[in-house]
Amino acid sequence: MTKLIIVGVLVIIGLIVLSQTLYKVDETEQVLVTRFGDVKSVHRTAGLRAKVPFVDTVVRFDRRLLRIDADPESMRDSKKENLVIDSYARYRILDPVQFRKTLISEENAFSRLGDIVNSTLREQIALRTRPEIIGARAIVIDGIPLEDEEGLAVFESTETRTALLAEVLEGVRLRVIASETTRSDLVPSDMAGGETFNVTLPQLILDRDNLDRDSDLKTGAGTSDIRVVSGLESEIEGFDIVVKLWSPATRTVTLGVQDGETASEGDSFTLQFFVERDDPLGIEIIDVRIKRADFPDSVTPSIFTRMRAERNRIATKFRAEGDEQDLVIRAEANKTREVILADADKASNLLRGEGEADAIRILAESLEQDPEFFSFRRSLEAYQRILNTGTTVILSADADLFRFLDSSGASPGAAP
């Protein structure tokens, strides 16, 4: 019994040691093995691995594309109007050792990279108008905005949104491999003829705007990558001090004075530029996208009010057009009715006239053939009209009305 207990304990200990010795690397993972905080090995391929039990620690990072949902922020466009921008980015961990050193975990990366994405977006949004941010513009023909059947402006899609996201992507990539640096409290010195002077930077700068479009931010740096961010503000737009030339070989910036302005020793200014990070983040930014660009909640009620007013205007326009069509249709119907009635009256009058003419003609022909019979028939019609039940007529016996009643059948006026 004691031996069984000992064997069982040894098996359990063996399983524990084995579980602490062997570990699996999934195909979606990259693994660091650390010993007392120091990285001993890196594994990026799937399989079963071994480590020193109870001493080595396995740190796992995802190899797949990871998503950063930046917090929605209110940003101002070039016209100082606010938009709430909700964005996201995709990145991949390229160097897990450096990633662990600078960002420690994916949760910290989410916060750090979200700030980088929003700051870059804010910088680019401030340079553009709302239609450029949305990626649409109103169609204008001969200076007149085109409208649809409802009276609303017709828009067409543009590539400005794509250009915005391309600039943001480059800016985020730059901030991932570089740090923003400033040289403060600089003063003009050694001015050659009062026109230019030189400042030496401590290290090479990076291509912040990537004007050469080679996707390599370490090449192509120029004067546009160095900015004067503070200094004496002149009456002319911008600062008195302007960047004239950048020499990578000597890391020298040639500065000058804006036309129409002057600078003297003692006037201080600050330069801003990007240099490569001493501790890279160990990641690669794949893409940056805007999920939505909405108005702030504070202006939403006024927007809905304006939308309702616009819809009421369209509804009123439709009702007015309907009333106009109703009047046109009714007028046309009444006109057609009057024409039909007039034509019918005309036709009936013609037929009635023709009938009366035929009746008169037939009557005249009958009268010519037998005037006495006609007289007899007319007398009978007169009897029918006046000699009704309850009618009392007092006439002379010699009245013409009764001449057919007393007649024996001979013609009136004939000899008895």
Q: Can you offer a commentary on this structure?
A:
This protein has four domains: 61 residues, no CATH class; 229 residues, 2-Layer Sandwich (Tetrahydropterin Synthase, Chain A), CATH 3.30.479.30; 59 residues; 45 residues, no CATH class. The chain is built from seven helices and 19 strands. The strands form seven sheets. Strands 6, 7, 8 and 19 form a four-stranded antiparallel β-sheet that branches. Helix 3 packs across helix 5 and helix 6 packs across helix 7. The chain is elongated and about 160 Å long. The C terminus is likely disordered.
The percent of residues in helical segments reads 25-40%
> Would you tell me the overall average pLDDT?
81
Order of helices and strands: HEEEEEEEEHHHEEEEHEEEEEEEHH
CATH topology of the largest domain: Tetrahydropterin Synthase, Chain A
SS elements, strand count: 19
Largest sheet: 4 strands, antiparallel
A few lines on this structure:
The protein is 38% helix and 26% strand.
What attributes characterize this protein structure?
26% strand, 7 helices, three-stranded antiparallel β-sheet, single chain, disordered C terminus, Tetrahydropterin Synthase, Chain A, elongated, alpha+beta, four-stranded antiparallel β-sheet, 4 domains, 19 strands, 416 residues, 38% helix
